[in-house]
Amino acid sequence: MKNALSLILIIYSIFIIGCDTTLRPARGIENEIIVFADSTEFEELKVSLEQVFEREIETPQPEKIFELKRVNYSDFQKYRAIKNLIFIAPFNSDHEMAKFIKNSLDSTATVQIKNKEVSYILKKDLWAIGQLVLLLTSPTLSELEFELVKNGNKLSYAFQKASDARLLTTIYNARYEQKNVEAKLLRDYGWMIYVQADFTLAMNRSDEKFVWLRRSPNSDMERWIFIHWIDDASPSMLNRDAIMSIRNKLTEKFYQTSDDKYFVTIADSIINTTEINFNNRYAIYSQGLWRTTDKYMGGPFVSYTFYDEKTGRIYMVDGSIYAPKYYKRNLIQQVDVILQSFLTESEISTERKESLFEAIDD
């Protein structure tokens, strides 16, 4: 019931300034969230806000997914077109931020918030294209903090998906797309993934059901993507232990050093797994660290493992980064976004298939 009410609010609640029909692209730092909040209240909520939005990933140095920056409501015009915005205040406060929130809601939303039926509204493209705005409120400060923590996973996920969508618009470029490679994979295996111009098809093993796409080999900024599938599989394989075992077996066989003495493995069993929706399928999202068995190289990886009912296959779509001299948060997100372009044949339109198959050059 609460989810339904949240959706109603997203559709019908109105912000006082409203939407513009001549919006420009949102600006600002991709992983920065601007927080409009009273300074005193922000300090009281700071720990909870950081727990929700400033979660860290190991790369292997800890890097924050987002960083928060509090500003005063008086600076609204300066920040209104920023990519990520949060407006937060208890409904019973009487400062400018609370007044803004109250004036931003219609009568129905106001009643629902007072009755504690909903606590947040997410709005896309409000003052800029690609922008995500969160309005978060509850009657009291303590109730507000409770709702923030309770809905933390949903809220952080919303900002991450908005960031992914923005990044996709910069990554995808039809002019530099390797349609011939995409078409061959679709023709031969019944799936495709977006292949940028600077990726090479490093390995194509139909007998092992393993494809490896590689960017900038033997450099200080490598990116690896592999796709592996298991025919006649069971959804029961979608668990953390099975995923770790499958990945380690694959990297031991295919991710080896040039002298074949060492190979890639999950570093000290460090892997975080989360249940997610991947292209309308139940999937296990994995994020962790890899290293070579000689401990000379290492870096972060992300992976999606899911069961496809139409083909009876388990798919593992996996991306890794090796960039020892660079911050890796943005690099791993770029690889993640490419992984999310994965589609099975049944998800691809006839028109797109025809366009791809025209590009096959063999």
Going by helix content, strand content and strand pairing, the class is alpha+beta
CATH class label of the largest domain: Alpha Beta
> What is the CATH architecture descriptor of the largest domain?
3-Layer(aba) Sandwich
Outline the biggest β-sheet: 7 strands, antiparallel
Number of helices: 11
Radius of gyration: 23 Å
* N-end to C-end Cα span: 55 Å
- The average pLDDT value, as a whole number, equals 90
Q: How many β strands by DSSP?
A: 16
What gross morphology would you assign? elongated
Order of secondary-structure elements: HEHEEEHEHHEEHHHEEEEHEEEEHEH
Task: Please state roughly what percent of the residues sit in beta strands, choosing from under 5%, 5-15%, 15-25%, 25-35%, 35-45% or over 45%.
Answer: 25-35%
How many separate structural domains? 2
In CATH terms, what is the fold-level topology of the largest domain? Protein Transport Mog1p, Chain A
Low-confidence stretches: 1-17
Provide the helix percentage: 25-40%
